[in-house]
Amino acid sequence: MLVQGNLIARISTDHVEAEGAERIAGNGRTLMPGLIDAHWHAMLIATTPAEAMEDIGFANLAAGDEATDTLMRGFTTVRDVGGPAFGLKRAIDRGIIVGPRIYPSGAMITVTSGHGDFRQLSDLPRRIGGLFTPMEGTGAAMVVDSPDEARLRAREQFMQGAVLLKLTAGGGVSSPFSPLDVTTFTAPELRAAVEIAENWGTYVAAHAFTPEAIEMAIAAGVKCIEHGFLMSEADAKLIAEKGIWLSLQPLHELMRTGLREGSVERAKADEVWPGIGRTYELAKKYKIKTAWGTDVLFSRAMAQQQGAILASLVRWYTPAEALAMATGTNAELLALSGKRNPYPGKLGLVEEGALADLLLVEGNPLENIDLVADPANNFKIIMKDGVIYKNTLAE
Q1: Strand 358-361 relative to strand 379-384: parallel, antiparallel, unpaired?
Q2: What is the pLDDT, as a whole number, of residue 233?
Protein backbone atom coordinates (compact mmCIF):
# COMPACT_ATOMS: atom_id res chain seq x y z
CA MET A 1 0.00 0.00 0.00
CA LEU A 2 1.18 3.49 -0.87
CA VAL A 3 -0.10 6.48 1.10
CA GLN A 4 0.42 9.87 -0.52
CA GLY A 5 -0.73 12.99 1.29
CA ASN A 6 -3.88 12.04 3.18
CA LEU A 7 -5.07 9.37 0.73
CA ILE A 8 -4.48 5.69 0.04
CA ALA A 9 -2.92 6.09 -3.40
CA ARG A 10 -2.30 2.48 -4.37
CA ILE A 11 -2.88 -1.08 -3.16
CA SER A 12 -1.00 -3.79 -4.99
CA THR A 13 0.37 -7.31 -4.62
CA ASP A 14 3.36 -6.10 -6.65
CA HIS A 15 6.30 -4.09 -5.39
CA VAL A 16 5.48 -0.37 -5.15
CA GLU A 17 8.22 2.23 -5.58
CA ALA A 18 7.88 5.76 -4.22
CA GLU A 19 10.94 7.96 -3.91
CA GLY A 20 11.54 9.24 -0.38
CA ALA A 21 8.70 7.21 1.15
CA GLU A 22 8.97 5.76 4.63
CA ARG A 23 8.75 1.98 4.30
CA ILE A 24 6.99 -0.07 6.99
CA ALA A 25 6.91 -3.86 6.95
CA GLY A 26 3.64 -5.34 8.17
CA ASN A 27 5.21 -8.75 8.74
CA GLY A 28 1.97 -10.68 9.05
CA ARG A 29 0.08 -8.10 11.07
CA THR A 30 -3.42 -6.90 10.12
CA LEU A 31 -4.07 -3.54 8.45
CA MET A 32 -7.56 -2.14 9.05
CA PRO A 33 -9.39 1.20 8.87
CA GLY A 34 -9.39 3.57 11.82
CA LEU A 35 -12.31 3.03 14.19
CA ILE A 36 -15.35 5.32 14.31
CA ASP A 37 -17.53 5.97 17.37
CA ALA A 38 -20.95 7.21 16.22
CA HIS A 39 -22.21 8.30 19.65
CA TRP A 40 -19.54 10.26 21.47
CA HIS A 41 -19.51 13.32 23.76
CA ALA A 42 -15.99 14.72 23.45
CA MET A 43 -16.64 17.60 25.87
CA LEU A 44 -18.49 15.56 28.48
CA ILE A 45 -16.01 12.81 29.37
CA ALA A 46 -13.02 14.25 31.24
CA THR A 47 -15.13 16.55 33.45
CA THR A 48 -17.81 16.37 36.09
CA PRO A 49 -21.29 17.58 35.04
CA ALA A 50 -20.76 20.83 36.98
CA GLU A 51 -17.40 21.51 35.29
CA ALA A 52 -18.84 20.79 31.85
CA MET A 53 -21.76 23.14 32.40
CA GLU A 54 -20.00 25.97 34.23
CA ASP A 55 -16.29 26.19 33.30
CA ILE A 56 -15.81 26.06 29.53
CA GLY A 57 -12.10 26.92 29.79
CA PHE A 58 -11.32 23.92 31.95
CA ALA A 59 -13.70 21.74 29.95
CA ASN A 60 -11.86 22.54 26.70
CA LEU A 61 -8.44 21.77 28.18
CA ALA A 62 -9.65 18.51 29.69
CA ALA A 63 -11.40 17.55 26.44
CA GLY A 64 -8.23 18.23 24.45
CA ASP A 65 -6.26 15.84 26.61
CA GLU A 66 -8.99 13.21 26.33
CA ALA A 67 -9.11 13.69 22.54
CA THR A 68 -5.48 12.62 22.30
CA ASP A 69 -6.25 9.51 24.33
CA THR A 70 -9.23 8.80 22.05
CA LEU A 71 -7.00 8.80 18.97
CA MET A 72 -4.42 6.64 20.75
CA ARG A 73 -7.16 4.07 21.28
CA GLY A 74 -7.46 3.82 17.49
CA PHE A 75 -10.57 5.97 17.11
CA THR A 76 -9.73 8.25 14.24
CA THR A 77 -13.27 9.68 13.91
CA VAL A 78 -16.15 10.41 16.28
CA ARG A 79 -19.69 11.68 15.73
CA ASP A 80 -20.22 14.09 18.61
CA VAL A 81 -23.91 14.10 19.57
CA GLY A 82 -24.11 16.76 22.24
CA GLY A 83 -21.69 19.29 23.66
CA PRO A 84 -19.75 22.44 22.72
CA ALA A 85 -17.13 20.63 20.61
CA PHE A 86 -16.68 23.26 17.90
CA GLY A 87 -13.49 24.80 19.36
CA LEU A 88 -12.03 21.37 20.07
CA LYS A 89 -12.67 20.33 16.48
CA ARG A 90 -10.95 23.46 15.12
CA ALA A 91 -7.93 22.92 17.34
CA ILE A 92 -7.60 19.32 16.13
CA ASP A 93 -8.10 20.22 12.47
CA ARG A 94 -5.43 22.94 12.70
CA GLY A 95 -2.96 20.60 14.38
CA ILE A 96 -2.87 22.53 17.64
CA ILE A 97 -3.76 19.38 19.55
CA VAL A 98 -3.93 15.72 18.55
CA GLY A 99 -7.30 14.03 18.33
CA PRO A 100 -9.86 12.33 16.07
CA ARG A 101 -11.93 13.86 13.32
CA ILE A 102 -15.08 15.28 14.92
CA TYR A 103 -18.53 15.44 13.33
CA PRO A 104 -20.20 17.90 15.76
CA SER A 105 -23.89 18.42 16.44
CA GLY A 106 -23.31 21.25 18.90
CA ALA A 107 -25.51 21.72 21.91
CA MET A 108 -28.09 19.08 22.74
CA ILE A 109 -31.41 20.69 21.93
CA THR A 110 -33.92 19.89 24.64
CA VAL A 111 -37.04 21.31 26.31
CA THR A 112 -37.81 22.35 29.84
CA SER A 113 -37.45 19.18 31.98
CA GLY A 114 -36.36 17.19 28.92
CA HIS A 115 -33.37 14.89 28.69
CA GLY A 116 -30.33 17.14 28.60
CA ASP A 117 -31.90 19.81 30.80
CA PHE A 118 -29.43 19.80 33.67
CA ARG A 119 -30.61 23.03 35.24
CA GLN A 120 -31.54 23.14 38.90
CA LEU A 121 -34.97 23.97 40.29
CA SER A 122 -33.47 27.25 41.48
CA ASP A 123 -33.06 28.22 37.81
CA LEU A 124 -36.85 28.29 37.41
CA PRO A 125 -39.04 29.93 36.28
CA ARG A 126 -37.51 30.33 32.86
CA ARG A 127 -38.26 33.69 31.28
CA ILE A 128 -38.47 33.66 27.48
CA GLY A 129 -35.71 35.91 26.21
CA GLY A 130 -34.07 36.01 29.64
CA LEU A 131 -30.46 35.38 30.56
CA PHE A 132 -28.89 32.02 29.78
CA THR A 133 -28.12 29.59 32.58
CA PRO A 134 -24.49 28.32 32.77
CA MET A 135 -25.55 25.13 30.94
CA GLU A 136 -26.73 27.15 27.96
CA GLY A 137 -23.94 29.68 28.20
CA THR A 138 -21.28 27.03 27.66
CA GLY A 139 -23.23 25.52 24.73
CA ALA A 140 -23.65 22.13 26.40
CA ALA A 141 -27.43 22.12 25.91
CA MET A 142 -30.10 24.53 24.74
CA VAL A 143 -33.68 24.66 26.02
CA VAL A 144 -36.42 25.31 23.47
CA ASP A 145 -40.10 25.50 24.31
CA SER A 146 -41.68 26.42 21.00
CA PRO A 147 -41.17 25.75 17.28
CA ASP A 148 -39.70 29.23 16.87
CA GLU A 149 -37.11 28.60 19.60
CA ALA A 150 -36.29 25.25 18.01
CA ARG A 151 -35.61 26.98 14.69
CA LEU A 152 -33.49 29.66 16.34
CA ARG A 153 -31.27 27.27 18.31
CA ALA A 154 -30.95 24.92 15.33
CA ARG A 155 -29.73 27.75 13.12
CA GLU A 156 -27.27 28.84 15.80
CA GLN A 157 -25.72 25.36 15.86
CA PHE A 158 -25.27 25.40 12.08
CA MET A 159 -23.81 28.90 12.26
CA GLN A 160 -21.14 27.55 14.60
CA GLY A 161 -20.32 24.56 12.38
CA ALA A 162 -22.74 21.76 13.27
CA VAL A 163 -23.00 18.99 10.68
CA LEU A 164 -26.18 17.50 12.18
CA LEU A 165 -28.63 18.31 14.98
CA LYS A 166 -29.22 16.28 18.15
CA LEU A 167 -32.65 16.56 19.79
CA THR A 168 -33.97 14.70 22.82
CA ALA A 169 -37.42 13.47 21.81
CA GLY A 170 -38.05 11.54 25.04
CA GLY A 171 -36.86 11.12 28.60
CA GLY A 172 -33.40 9.91 29.55
CA VAL A 173 -31.47 8.14 32.27
CA SER A 174 -28.95 10.80 33.31
CA SER A 175 -31.38 13.75 33.53
CA PRO A 176 -33.01 13.88 36.98
CA PHE A 177 -36.15 15.75 35.89
CA SER A 178 -36.84 13.77 32.69
CA PRO A 179 -38.95 10.60 33.21
CA LEU A 180 -38.44 7.88 30.61
CA ASP A 181 -42.09 7.68 29.61
CA VAL A 182 -42.47 11.38 28.76
CA THR A 183 -42.38 12.51 25.12
CA THR A 184 -40.63 15.76 25.81
CA PHE A 185 -40.93 17.61 22.49
CA THR A 186 -44.18 18.35 20.72
CA ALA A 187 -44.53 17.27 17.10
CA PRO A 188 -44.41 20.87 15.78
CA GLU A 189 -41.20 21.55 17.75
CA LEU A 190 -39.54 18.47 16.29
CA ARG A 191 -40.71 19.30 12.76
CA ALA A 192 -39.33 22.83 13.08
CA ALA A 193 -35.82 21.51 13.83
CA VAL A 194 -36.07 18.91 11.05
CA GLU A 195 -37.06 21.65 8.61
CA ILE A 196 -33.96 23.68 9.46
CA ALA A 197 -31.70 20.63 9.19
CA GLU A 198 -33.17 19.83 5.78
CA ASN A 199 -32.64 23.45 4.70
CA TRP A 200 -28.97 22.91 5.56
CA GLY A 201 -28.86 19.63 3.63
CA THR A 202 -28.40 17.41 6.66
CA TYR A 203 -30.42 15.57 9.30
CA VAL A 204 -31.66 15.32 12.88
CA ALA A 205 -30.66 12.52 15.25
CA ALA A 206 -33.16 12.05 18.07
CA HIS A 207 -32.58 10.55 21.49
CA ALA A 208 -35.62 8.30 21.98
CA PHE A 209 -36.28 5.21 24.09
CA THR A 210 -40.03 4.60 24.01
CA PRO A 211 -42.38 3.72 21.14
CA GLU A 212 -44.16 7.07 21.53
CA ALA A 213 -40.94 9.09 21.28
CA ILE A 214 -39.60 6.98 18.39
CA GLU A 215 -42.82 7.17 16.37
CA MET A 216 -43.23 10.92 16.87
CA ALA A 217 -39.61 11.53 15.84
CA ILE A 218 -39.97 9.45 12.68
CA ALA A 219 -43.24 11.19 11.79
CA ALA A 220 -41.44 14.53 12.15
CA GLY A 221 -38.76 13.49 9.65
CA VAL A 222 -35.90 12.46 11.95
CA LYS A 223 -33.38 10.31 10.04
CA CYS A 224 -31.56 8.64 12.96
CA ILE A 225 -32.86 7.26 16.25
CA GLU A 226 -30.34 7.19 19.11
CA HIS A 227 -30.78 4.27 21.56
CA GLY A 228 -34.37 3.04 21.04
CA PHE A 229 -33.94 0.54 23.89
CA LEU A 230 -37.65 0.39 24.79
CA MET A 231 -38.95 0.11 21.23
CA SER A 232 -41.69 -2.31 20.16
CA GLU A 233 -41.43 -4.83 17.36
CA ALA A 234 -43.76 -2.59 15.34
CA ASP A 235 -41.27 0.24 15.76
CA ALA A 236 -38.47 -1.97 14.45
CA LYS A 237 -40.55 -2.78 11.37
CA LEU A 238 -41.31 0.93 10.85
CA ILE A 239 -37.64 1.90 11.15
CA ALA A 240 -36.65 -0.77 8.63
CA GLU A 241 -39.41 0.11 6.17
CA LYS A 242 -38.56 3.82 6.18
CA GLY A 243 -34.79 3.29 6.03
CA ILE A 244 -34.18 5.15 9.28
CA TRP A 245 -30.79 4.73 10.93
CA LEU A 246 -30.63 3.21 14.41
CA SER A 247 -27.62 4.29 16.44
CA LEU A 248 -27.18 1.62 19.14
CA GLN A 249 -24.80 1.28 22.04
CA PRO A 250 -23.97 -1.95 23.96
CA LEU A 251 -23.83 0.11 27.15
CA HIS A 252 -21.28 -1.11 29.67
CA GLU A 253 -22.82 -2.55 32.84
CA LEU A 254 -20.67 -0.23 34.97
CA MET A 255 -22.54 2.72 33.49
CA ARG A 256 -25.62 1.37 35.30
CA THR A 257 -24.08 0.06 38.52
CA GLY A 258 -22.01 3.21 38.87
CA LEU A 259 -25.19 5.19 39.48
CA ARG A 260 -26.21 5.65 43.11
CA GLU A 261 -28.53 2.87 44.26
CA GLY A 262 -31.96 4.24 45.07
CA SER A 263 -31.47 7.33 42.90
CA VAL A 264 -33.89 8.35 40.17
CA GLU A 265 -31.17 7.80 37.58
CA ARG A 266 -30.40 4.26 38.82
CA ALA A 267 -34.09 3.31 38.71
CA LYS A 268 -34.33 4.52 35.11
CA ALA A 269 -31.14 2.67 34.15
CA ASP A 270 -32.54 -0.54 35.65
CA GLU A 271 -35.56 -0.13 33.37
CA VAL A 272 -33.53 0.59 30.22
CA TRP A 273 -30.70 -1.97 30.47
CA PRO A 274 -32.81 -5.12 29.81
CA GLY A 275 -33.92 -3.57 26.53
CA ILE A 276 -30.41 -3.34 25.07
CA GLY A 277 -30.12 -6.97 24.02
CA ARG A 278 -33.71 -7.09 22.76
CA THR A 279 -33.15 -4.02 20.60
CA TYR A 280 -30.05 -5.54 19.04
CA GLU A 281 -32.05 -8.69 18.26
CA LEU A 282 -34.78 -6.60 16.60
CA ALA A 283 -32.17 -4.65 14.61
CA LYS A 284 -30.76 -7.92 13.29
CA LYS A 285 -34.18 -9.48 12.63
CA TYR A 286 -35.39 -6.57 10.50
CA LYS A 287 -31.99 -5.74 8.95
CA ILE A 288 -32.09 -2.17 10.23
CA LYS A 289 -29.25 0.17 9.25
CA THR A 290 -27.39 0.00 12.56
CA ALA A 291 -24.56 2.26 13.72
CA TRP A 292 -22.37 1.65 16.77
CA GLY A 293 -21.27 4.00 19.54
CA THR A 294 -20.44 4.09 23.24
CA ASP A 295 -22.24 7.09 24.81
CA VAL A 296 -19.64 7.46 27.57
CA LEU A 297 -20.34 10.38 29.92
CA PHE A 298 -18.28 11.98 32.71
CA SER A 299 -15.81 9.11 33.12
CA ARG A 300 -12.29 8.88 31.72
CA ALA A 301 -12.02 5.41 33.21
CA MET A 302 -15.02 4.28 31.17
CA ALA A 303 -13.63 5.99 28.06
CA GLN A 304 -10.58 3.74 28.39
CA GLN A 305 -12.99 0.83 27.77
CA GLN A 306 -14.00 2.20 24.35
CA GLY A 307 -12.44 -0.71 22.46
CA ALA A 308 -13.78 -3.24 24.96
CA ILE A 309 -17.30 -1.86 24.48
CA LEU A 310 -16.87 -2.42 20.75
CA ALA A 311 -15.62 -5.96 21.35
CA SER A 312 -18.73 -6.68 23.44
CA LEU A 313 -20.80 -6.60 20.23
CA VAL A 314 -19.87 -10.27 19.76
CA ARG A 315 -22.88 -11.04 21.96
CA TRP A 316 -24.91 -10.43 18.78
CA TYR A 317 -22.47 -10.21 15.84
CA THR A 318 -19.40 -11.92 14.47
CA PRO A 319 -16.11 -10.05 14.88
CA ALA A 320 -16.21 -9.19 11.18
CA GLU A 321 -19.74 -7.77 11.48
CA ALA A 322 -18.82 -5.75 14.57
CA LEU A 323 -15.67 -4.30 13.02
CA ALA A 324 -17.52 -3.46 9.80
CA MET A 325 -20.13 -1.60 11.86
CA ALA A 326 -17.46 0.47 13.64
CA THR A 327 -15.74 1.39 10.37
CA GLY A 328 -17.53 1.29 7.00
CA THR A 329 -21.11 1.28 8.30
CA ASN A 330 -20.54 4.18 10.70
CA ALA A 331 -18.86 6.03 7.83
CA GLU A 332 -22.08 5.69 5.81
CA LEU A 333 -23.97 7.40 8.62
CA LEU A 334 -21.39 10.20 8.70
CA ALA A 335 -21.96 10.77 4.99
CA LEU A 336 -25.62 11.52 5.73
CA SER A 337 -24.44 15.05 6.55
CA GLY A 338 -24.18 15.72 2.80
CA LYS A 339 -22.47 19.02 1.99
CA ARG A 340 -22.10 19.76 5.71
CA ASN A 341 -19.58 16.89 5.86
CA PRO A 342 -16.38 18.54 7.15
CA TYR A 343 -14.17 15.73 5.83
CA PRO A 344 -15.29 14.89 2.29
CA GLY A 345 -13.81 11.63 1.12
CA LYS A 346 -14.17 7.95 1.87
CA LEU A 347 -13.80 6.96 5.52
CA GLY A 348 -13.90 3.55 7.16
CA LEU A 349 -12.43 1.66 4.19
CA VAL A 350 -9.09 0.31 3.03
CA GLU A 351 -9.22 0.99 -0.69
CA GLU A 352 -7.55 3.22 -3.24
CA GLY A 353 -8.73 6.81 -2.97
CA ALA A 354 -9.96 6.48 0.62
CA LEU A 355 -8.75 8.80 3.36
CA ALA A 356 -5.69 7.29 5.03
CA ASP A 357 -7.03 6.51 8.51
CA LEU A 358 -5.33 3.20 9.28
CA LEU A 359 -4.40 0.85 12.12
CA LEU A 360 -1.73 -1.85 12.02
CA VAL A 361 -2.75 -4.52 14.52
CA GLU A 362 -0.62 -7.16 16.22
CA GLY A 363 -2.70 -10.21 15.36
CA ASN A 364 -5.98 -10.62 13.52
CA PRO A 365 -9.04 -8.92 15.10
CA LEU A 366 -11.30 -10.90 12.75
CA GLU A 367 -10.23 -13.96 14.72
CA ASN A 368 -9.85 -12.26 18.10
CA ILE A 369 -11.81 -9.02 18.42
CA ASP A 370 -10.53 -8.55 21.97
CA LEU A 371 -7.34 -7.21 20.38
CA VAL A 372 -9.10 -3.85 19.96
CA ALA A 373 -9.73 -3.73 23.72
CA ASP A 374 -5.97 -3.34 24.36
CA PRO A 375 -4.83 -0.68 21.89
CA ALA A 376 -1.72 0.21 23.88
CA ASN A 377 -0.20 -3.19 23.17
CA ASN A 378 -1.93 -4.28 19.96
CA PHE A 379 -2.15 -1.14 17.78
CA LYS A 380 1.41 -0.82 16.49
CA ILE A 381 0.66 2.01 14.07
CA ILE A 382 -2.10 4.60 14.24
CA MET A 383 -2.46 6.84 11.20
CA LYS A 384 -5.03 9.59 10.70
CA ASP A 385 -5.26 11.63 7.51
CA GLY A 386 -1.98 10.18 6.27
CA VAL A 387 -0.07 11.22 9.40
CA ILE A 388 1.42 8.58 11.71
CA TYR A 389 0.62 9.42 15.35
CA LYS A 390 1.90 6.17 16.83
CA ASN A 391 4.57 3.81 15.50
CA THR A 392 5.98 1.35 18.02
CA LEU A 393 7.69 -0.59 15.22
CA ALA A 394 10.10 2.32 14.79
CA GLU A 395 11.19 1.84 18.41
Answers
A1: antiparallel
A2: 97
First-to-last C-alpha distance (Å) of the chain: 22
pTM exceeding the 0.70 threshold for the entire prediction: yes
**Which segments of 316-386 are extended strands (E)?**
358-361, 379-384
Q: What's the order of all strands across the beta sheet hosting 358-361?
A: 30-33, 358-361, 379-384, 387-391
Strand (E) or helix (H) holding 110: strand 108-110
pLDDT in tens, 160-207: 999 999 999 999 998 889 999 999 999 999 999 999 999 999 999 999
Under 8 Å between Cβ of 200 and 181: no
In this structure, the chain runs to a length of 395
**What are residue 2's phi and psi, to 5 degrees?**
-115, 125
Pick the CATH number of 30-349+366-372 from 3.30.365.10, 3.20.20.140, 3.90.480.10, 3.30.499.10: 3.20.20.140
Domain ranges of the chain: 30-349+366-372
Predicted confidence band of residue 55 (pLDDT cuts 50, 70, 90): confident
Strand order of the sheet with strand 165-168? 141-143, 108-110, 165-168, 204-208, 224-227, 245-248, 289-292
